[in-house]
Write a structure and sequence with these properties.
Pdz3 Domain, 24 strands, mainly beta, 2 domains, Thrombin, subunit H
Amino acid sequence: MSVPTSLPPTPPAGGTSVPYSGTPYSGTPYSGPSYAGSYSYGTPPGGYAPPAEKKGRAGLITGVIAGTAAVSLVAGGFGGVIGYLAAENAGGSQATIAAAPAVAGAQSGGSSIPALMGIADLAAAVQPAVVQLNIGAADGEGTGSGFIISEDGYIVTNHHVAGPAGEDGSVEVVFADGSTATGKLVGSDAGYDLAVVKVERSGLPTLDLGSSSNVRVGDVAVALGSPLGLQGTVTSGIVSALERPVTAGGRGETSFINAIQTDAAINPGNSGGPLVNGSGEVIGVNTAIASLGAFGGAAGSIGLGFAIPIDTTKRIVNEIINTGSSTTPVIGVQLDMQFEGQGARVAEVTPGSGAAEAGIRDGDIITAVNGDVITEPTELIVSIRSNAPGDNVDLTVLRDGRTQDITVTLAAAE
């Protein structure tokens, strides 16, 4: 069962003197795209490797994009569209950066351990590299968050925050010290909900990128950003769960996220900001929340926030910095999204694809990826997307009542 969601209108960025008093959105909550018949597996979506102990379909969450704190949207901008600032995918408006730096992880590589310093000291160390993004686009304006990963001005954020700026919109970057700079969208990926912005500055403070593969349930988690335009906000909690299959998006753009779940408060405007561990290393990019707003309750944080794992983020960001775009791994099949049994049923194998070469057949039911159980089609999509083109994945396939393992080499979606 998907979690009904909604997102309230939000005040202009910087309007911190007056508490929010708007009326929560009361329309029909966005519940993902309508999958009639088969889904063409291999176009944007996918990326989640579930743990061995599966919770079944109830584990799939439709999240509210925690993204831009919208300032001014045209009529219909919010109706059922959970958080995207503009309708169009700005992924095509990308610039190629020559000799771009690689996005390297922290050298420690250790697990996310409790902070040796207090949250206050951790926040003081991390906040200088966290920024607010004020976006101007054809459909309106909004505020989101981001964080600096290189001294020469590369900033990571969400697609639904910066992507709408495209070539013609504006990106204002507000630093922790109150100074501002004009940013440029380097590129974005709607399917992964990630984007990179560049400012022409040097000597900027940066954050260390940790490893999401070492994160454990119960680890310290601290979220930083600009919820509702309130720059410099810090909330803390723990990692509540790992590898949550979360879908979020709207207006034809859907992100499939292999999410880290946290109870650290995340609200509209937090999107694109870092989720850090107890050592101050980034373990995820805040992107979505579950909300009870559809039931007439609070439309903000209810302690169910979701972040894109940093290991996935590193690959996508590196590709965007170096080429202006990023790749999506696929096995080369269409899935029957109406299949109600356990697993993901193959509706059609794409000729010449990795699946075809490996011997996958129409009607096969994929029940596991690399030993991780798959209970429904979306889990397969997000599981595959947690890999990269060229990787080999071991699929457990049910065919004619018998189970067999088949290794497939992933290709890049065209």
